[in-house]
Amino acid sequence: MPTKAVAIVRAVVSTVIGHYRTAGNALEIAWNAMALMGRFGGWPSPSIGESELIGPDERRPTPSQARSSPAPPGPCPQRPLHQPEQWVTNFFAEQIAPWMCPVLQADNECKMHLLPLARIIGNMRKFVNFSSLGDSEKLHRYLTEQFGFLTIFSLPHTDDDTAAEQLKEAFDFVQEFAESCARDKHNPPFLAECFRTILTVWHGQKHNPGLDVNFVMEDFKSEIESRADISVFDHYLTWALPVTLPTHIADTVPNHAVNSHGATEPQCRKVDVAIIGGGFSGCYLLHKLRKQKFSAVIIEAASGLGGVWQWNCYPGARVDTSVPLYKYSIEEAWRTWNWTEKLPTTSELQKYFEHVDKVLDLSKDVIYNTKVTDAAFDDATNKWTIQTDKHSRIEASWFVPAVGFAAKRSFPEWPGLDDFQGVIHHSSFWPHDGVDLRDKRVAVVGTGSTGVQIMQEVSPQAKSLVLFQRTPNLTLPLNQAKLTKEEQDLEKNSYPDKYEARLLSKGGYDFSPSDLGTFDHNTEERRAFFQDKWDKGGFHFWTGAYRDLLTNLDANREAYSFWSSKIRSLIRDPTKREMLAPLKAPHPFGTKRPALFRNFYQVCDQDNFSIVDVNKTPVTNVLSNGIVTADGTTHEVDALILATGFDAITGGLKAINILNSAGENLTKSWSNGTWTNLDLMTADFPNMFFMYGPQGPTALSNGPTCVEVQGDWIAQAVASAREAGKQRMRATRAARKSAENGYEGFVFE
């Protein structure tokens, strides 16, 4: 780099650091830096290639294009009189940060002088409230990213005295990144994992100088290049590629993987049982296995426990089963915990899992921020080998993919979805700090429980709401209630009886269907029976109704007739009434899990609310400003909420490359239909158990009840194998052929 350029950078750094130490005002620092550069006639060129400047609203380059750096920023214009903070911050984010990132990777003299400035600019995000800089969420997200990336890119050149602090700060940024830029089609959780891998590689190289860093990074870059859905972000990983590090040394991967709690995990960990997922299933099974003196580990993709309750933080997200039924029956956990309301929200459920974690000390056996990519069984050793996206391995005698039934998200395949310029979020990618929908035209796609909950919450903010519906949700009244500590403390002595009762009920609740059939009552008695169940709220009208609700179609029609009469009375608009509560049932009542409503139908009845029946007018494509349907209508919206659910039940299992000893993938094994024995095992995959998965009571039961029954069974099965000196357990092919004809379903070998 020319001597003049180095002098300019040295002068800027010196001036900025001086202001930083004396004033500490991040925006003043930014302005002084730009003004000084302007006096020197502009920014020096990094001299490592040329490409177009990348702004926050422009398409990013491909990975190959991104190998060259952006052009230097232009001269500093006159300081604006209005909104200077927004302008200064935006200028840094759009021009200075992208310019500096590749410079930090270049092998030139300028780099070392830029590093202190990079760290200062990275710290600016601690002083600036990006959400106050206008209404553009895309801008806020971009600003946060740019400043945080500087923290990451300066890390390899940090001296040893501050390396640990910088490493933690960089990991903290990646966590913020995963939470704040949850853009659906760009799969930010995957990208966040890539950045964690970058940091882990750098961390590993410090402890293992023989590590071939480039080999690992190229592997990840290749994976990114194969994923068109995250092309908007791929240049960041390319810039992060440490191309100047040696490539001729060992071909190993990092010795350690760093999780969000600061612990280090060995490259290969050997345990008795490996569990995927830290939701209700995985946490309960880990607790039970410990009681049986087994070594076990949970591999969890998120940074905390809770499963779906760690991810689902969309507006209105709450459980549909009342407490204390919706929690563990483990006394040390419930004895010291109280709820604030009968049907808790996501935030309270997250706090509950933090409490459970603390009481049961679960995290010491949890590997966080890690996804399982492959699992294979070896006949010779009777062991499962589990591979993760951190290039680490776990070897286990028993394998439990407790991924739940809602682990793989479903997205609509609409042409042009990537072109939409407004706010867009999948419900399960909702940012933890929320989304500002004030005075926005909002579209909600889907009327599952998520769609119902979201619409109830965003209605007061939105300028207008349009619902894209395929099937109306046959909802039931929420019947929420506040709870006090005093009343819960009094009730706790009855908890053991409640938990025993839920084990004996049909759906895992503390109530069961009536012993009476629908037509054992006359018309008047039947209506009184229905009304009583309706008034109790929740699932009483569903799982506490007549015993023949799901076995007699005429009985089912009686229940639906009562339901539709109740809902239709809440809707004034006749067109909306027919779409939301038609006289003819769209499907037998209770064959889908109902959502619980609070003021959903009042929201739907508002003048600023409209419904699109996608059966009659399906979506054809998406434009930059809205959604186009088959009748030619463009529904202009500012925000698009995809409450489109999941590839339910089997999607999460099939997303993992699970191989039996013959090399057959689980997906291929189930290509002609899913099969399990009692929702616990499947033929040809020994020593592998399911929890809350396919062909179980899963979506039609109370989750905690279901997983405790299954967890107890699995823990006892593994203990029985140990006691008998057996190393293998499998579901028999005879059971697969005829599970109802008395064949032995499971055998130890």
From TrEMBL:
Keyword Oxidoreductase: yes
Signal peptide: none
Superkingdom of the organism of origin: Eukaryota
GO molecular function: flavin adenine dinucleotide binding; N,N-dimethylaniline monooxygenase activity; NADP binding
Cofactor: FAD
UniProt keywords, alphabetically: FAD, Flavoprotein, Monooxygenase, NADP, Oxidoreductase
Region (Disordered): 48-80
Entries under InterPro entries matching the protein: FAD-binding_Monooxygenases, FAD/NAD-bd_sf, Flavin_mOase-like
Family indicated by similarity: Belongs to the FAD-binding monooxygenase family.
Protein name (record): FAD/NAD(P)-binding domain-containing protein
Species for this entry: Fusarium gaditjirri
